[in-house]
Write a structure and sequence with these properties.
The chain has 326 residues and is α+β, with helices and mostly antiparallel strands. It is built from 9 helices and 14 strands. The protein is elongated and about 80 Å long. The structure holds biotin. Biotin binds at residues 89-91, 113, 116-119, 122, 124, 133-135, 177, 187-189, 205-207.
């Protein structure tokens, strides 16, 4: 109910009478009044004027299921929302939900993680209520070896969503770090449960440095935040909802061919490493070359010094810039 009231107030952008709300939802005035009171308690500023009704004046920077539910503009991505004030890791939580059979498109969002996970066994640290940590559960009917491409698709969605909401010039450092001005703004950790012939679920974890400016010493050179880049805080809910909206579009395009065929060109335009020197760190095999884009399977094409082009698979290697992070 809260979410629905909020949605109407937001769409109208003007006064909506209590009567109208009652008729719309087929509930009593008391139910509407209760919903308004709860929203106010959560920090929403709602004006109430006799004979005119209710008007939303200001929303706090909340990312609760109520807030996100009232703004989500998708068919299925984020169709079910789970909000957690604090959790060890949204990926861990999402995996448990996925094991219990929760629906495709379920999104777990947390305001704080006390055991956030990064790629390659690293930790992912974030401050309370100022970052974005979310995990999306999808159940694609594709072969397990194609699941790594989900991460590329997500990278595109995050980059595009940040660009749309903030106007910042986002790029992707292959395979899936989002960067702004050469510094990391977001990371993605994809985990999967699969049998030999099919996927049970994929959990796509997305961390975005949003409204904070302090980083631990070791990250200062390579990481940045949206607030740092913009000079003011962002509406986290807008970024989450936009990411889901764009993800849904890219996901469906990906599923048409179950490959990056229809997306590779767009991905390439977002690629921060394009035509740059990179160093490929493969276990027991290190070499340098120039990144030339990706192929249909999402592998990075690296042109070596001897002119030979090799395709680098995301799972096994680390690709570094020669002079700096990108
Ligand atoms: C990386 O190392 O770049 C990946 C970072 C992924 C962090 C996100 S935050 C939400 C989700 N839950 C986690 O524990 N990790 C991912």
């Amino acid at each position: 109910m809260k979410s629905k009231i909020l949605n109407i107030l937001r769409i109208k952008g003007d006064y909506v009478s209590g009567q109208e709300l009652c008729e719309y939802f087929g509930v009593t005035r008391t139910a509407i009044w209760k919903g308004i009171r709860q929203l106010r308690e959560e920090g929403y500023q709602i004006d109430a004027v006799k004979n005119k009704g209710y008007r939303l004046l200001e929303s706090p920077d909340l990312i609760t299921d109520v807030e996100l539910g009232s703004r989500m503009d998708t068919n299925w991505a984020g169709g079910k929302l789970v909000y957690l004030d604090e959790v060890d890791s949204t990926n861990n939580y999402a995996r448990k939900l996925a094991e219990d059979g929760v629906q495709h498109g379920t999104l777990v969002v947390a305001d704080y993680q006390n055991g956030g996970k990064g790629r390659r066994g690293r930790t992912w640290v974030m401050p309370h209520r100022k970052a974005i940590a979310m995990s999306l559960i999808v159940r694609p009917d594709i072969r397990p070896e194609k699941a790594s491409m989900m991460t590329l698709v997500t990278g595109m969605a995050v980059a595009e969503a940040i660009k749309k909401v903030t106007g910042l010039d986002t790029k992707i450092k292959w395979p899936n770090d989002i960067v702004i001005n050469g510094k990391k703004i977001s990371g993605i950790l994809t985990e999967m449960s699969a049998e030999m012939d099919g996927i049970n679920y994929v959990v796509i974890g997305i961390g975005i440095n949003a409204n904070f400016t302090e980083f631990p010493e070791e990250l200062r050179e390579t990481a940045t935040s949206l607030q740092q880049q913009l000079g003011y805080p962002v509406d986290r809910g807008a970024i989450i909802c936009m990411t889901m909206k764009i993800f849904e579009i890219y996901y469906e395009r990906f599923m048409e061919t179950q490959s990056m065929k229809g997306l590779a060109e767009e991905y390439q335009q977002m690629l921060a490493n394009l035509d740059r020197q990179v160093r490929v760190l493969e276990p027991g095999n290190e070499y340098s070359g120039v990144a030339r884009g990706i192929d249909e399977t999402g592998q990075l094409l690296v042109e070596k010094e001897n002119g030979e082009t090799v395709a680098v698979y995301a799972g096994e290697v680390s690709v570094r810039g020669i002079y700096n992070y990108v």
